[in-house]
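Colleagues,

Please find the record for the two-part complex below.
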Amino acid sequence: MTTHAVESLFPRLEPLLSEVSKPVQYIGGEQNAVVKDWDAVQVRWCLMYPDAYEIGQPNQGVAILYEVLNEIDWILAERSYAVWPDLEAKLREHGIPQFTLETHRPVGAFDLLGFSLSTELGYTNLLNALDLAGIPLHSAERTEEHPIVLVGGHAAFNPEPLADFIDAAVLGDGEEASLRIADIVREWKAEGRPGGRDEVLLRLAATGGVYVPRFYDVDYLEDGRIRRVAPNRSGVPFRVTKHTLMDLNAWPYPKQPLVPLAETVHERYSVEIFRGCTRGCRFCQAGMITRPVRERSIETIGSMVEQGLRATGLEEVGLLSLSSADHTEIGEVAKQLADRYEDEFVSLSLPSTRVDAFNIDLANELSRNGRRSGLTFAPEGGSERMRRVINKTVDEDDLIRTVATAYKSGWRQVKLYFMCGLPTETDEDVLAIADLAKRVIDTGRAETGTRDIRCTVSIGGFVPKPHTPFQWAGQLDVETTDARLQKLKDAIRADKKYARAIGFRYHDGKPGLIEGLLSRGDRRVGRVIEAVWRDGGRFDGWSEHFSFDRWITCATRELAEFGIDTDWYTTRERDYDEVLPWDHLDSGLDREWLWEDWQDALDEIEVDDCRWTPCFDCGVCQQLDTEIQIGPTGKTLLPIPQVRPDLG
Amino acid sequence: MAPQKQPPQQQAPPVQKLRVQYAKRGPARFSSHRDFGRAFERALRRAGIPMAFSSGFNPHPRISFANASPTGAASEAEYLEIGLAKVCDPERVRVALDQALPAGLSIERVTEGGGASLADRLTGSLWEVTWPGRELELTEPLREFLGRSEVLVERMTKNGLREFDARGPVLSAEATPDRLRLLIRHEVPLVRPDDVLKALTVVAPQWSLPTGLLVNRLAQGTLVEGELRDPLADA
């Protein structure tokens, strides 16, 4: 292996930057960026988020791994993001490859290239980045000179559509896994790279926690379904297991996240107050694949927030999780943080709050030092029946009571999130959303005596996801989805009494159907992704770039020889016996339990949360040897003396 | 329980106003005026500057920007003013802020505010345009340009495509084979070096606009008899 110097591409890139939009996103140099000596380390990770900087930079997963890896003296980690089409054209014209932001080195010069996959609609950007980097698109064509291409993040729980393009996938929490991978690569390099690329991939696969698609063969039945997926060599496990980080207090990352110079979608210091969720919403892949619940203590949260604010100068703190009001000490956390930062006008935000865990005192604490913009709830289903099916049991009267208190204590705007196309759904279930919104407005008007009350209904199409009880469900077709959304819109608009008070925001069914194709796809779908990318597909998560026709045309053409099509992957309901493309990837959830939960959904039977009731054997804790880690700890945050520099 | 329609808390007025000269250099020149604004607010917090805040439901630190240079142009002479809640030593504030800003953004001077407002003091700019690694012959187009009383150019502004005179505000223009210096009076719309370069292609159609130009604002200040005076002097 040659050890030629790897130079910065910036001198070649800089003259192009004045000719593209928002060039600041490509310059790097952000506060808290880590620049290490290329030649002084043994393993080099490039972390890439396959979307624009403004979307990718705030990603919590990348921020965590960036610090975890850079804290090790023999590892360096740099970042890369998707470039917009205007810069892409110039890079291709001038022969400049995909680059990192820290030192503007070519992505292809790193040992490991890890993609963070939050959404399936980023797959074409992943292919584009590989191609721009000069890395062969297909894993099989890569040599020792190329980075090992990995994926992680929620979409990596079914990496099969990307099987041809990636070398490996990692399921679950990345903190320990990324270090373990770096260790294996370091050893292999130190030994002189014995056995080449296959050998290092074999060593990774042998850990049982890294999925290497090339070591597994997929056979199909006559009718197109999968016959079986099995290892094609010894030394690799039949099933690959997800990683679970226990004791989040021991891993308080990010400690000093990057502060972007460019504008991004979330500019706040975010601390995950817990990971995992056992509420059991049946549509929610995030809740299913991140079990069990592991809380950070109020003390860890307090010290992370203090250190994070000092390191960044940010003016907002986000208390993140999948259902933040469920933290056992959320009231104290919010109150004590609001107390501590009252004089500095630091505001707190709490994304993802459930109606039943919400209380107005908490909301008041959150808005004390900052804006009181609006309250957001996600009942997800319009009717009580629908909410029993999806196990998001929000009682309508509870919701109305909460809303009443909110309006009484000063809020004027409530946002409600719903989904359309849930299993067993009828027009009536969706039209119930209009009735609910009207009740919200009536309540607000009655409580406040003013007509100046707003309720925004936001709704999108449901996409069935792997590793959930709805993984067997048929997705609702585009036409019916759009027709149902139109009926709802008409119902809201029909009544002049409410028409102006209720805002209606919806996403049409087309992107959702393609997301459905990719999320439950198998290896054959890889050909579709490649065809779409070759035809110019980029930034599919952006409505101005997404082309439904292109996807359907490519899918029809590429899947024809297998006798299947887009509908086969999306609107078709699966049977118990069908081998699902991700069955060999173990999220800890017991397949039998998932199936029973699916049957319970059809019977409208709810299931409880195991934090407060006995275990109902979803399988995760037994299978993965993990446990629920929650408070309360009863601790309080110590006041922090505000030490200011002497500038007098 | 806090009712929403309570009168917003009144914040105390600033006890001291400081004027700040800052520079944008190297890759940081690609940051926009808004990008710099956010970075500066965060630097204020990291540096522990005792800022005065505005009143209202959503208090903001008191910062007023004046006349920022366009995105992509470097500058040695950008100005803003901050309001403090506690009296501070300007030089200590300068050092603390300078250390808290990311690379390429630097605080050059901090002085006590007073007298005429910053906006009134910034009536002209001295710009330099360079084209590294090449030589350009600008004498002819420049003579043609300076010989006219008006040269109309178009530029996309916030309010759409506008046509304006790029000649009138140019007080002096001198070129060597590797740089062009322009002294321009601030008017509405503000004439920038790229407008003048575009104007050169209007008066000398045989001359075409080169790419890869670097624009740098060398100074900004009060125009007195065709000369720039330091806007932070005699504060």
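Chain A has 22 helices and 19 strands.

Comments are welcome before we finalize the supplementary table.
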